[in-house]
Q: What sequence folds into this?
């Protein structure tokens, strides 16, 4: 069974990613997710969403779009599997 992927942020980037996920015949949803993509244009919102996901599901893979690369290095050290 394919595990759904959660996609957060349906701006221009998120809409393209959603097209690719659907083209790959991957389910996109919440129940028993296999990964979470956080793709908004706001670093603070992205980090907050990633931390919330981590609190809910400690083992799920989280992909976060970050503009400030300094934050990315710090986040990766503080939160595993991101």
A:
């Amino acid at each position: 069974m394919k595990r759904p992927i959660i996609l957060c942020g349906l701006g221009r980037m998120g809409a393209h990613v959603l097209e690719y996920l659907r083209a790959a015949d991957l389910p996109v949803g919440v129940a028993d997710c296999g990964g979470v993509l956080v793709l908004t244009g706001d670093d603070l919102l992205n980090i907050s969403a990633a931390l919330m996901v981590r609190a809910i599901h400690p083992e799920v893979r989280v992909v976060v779009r970050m503009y400030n690369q300094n934050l990315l290095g710090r986040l990766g050290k503080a939160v595993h599997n991101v």
In short: Strands lie at 5-8, 35-38, 61-64. Residues 5-77 form a domain with the Rossmann fold fold (CATH 3.40.50.720). The chain has a mean pLDDT of 80.
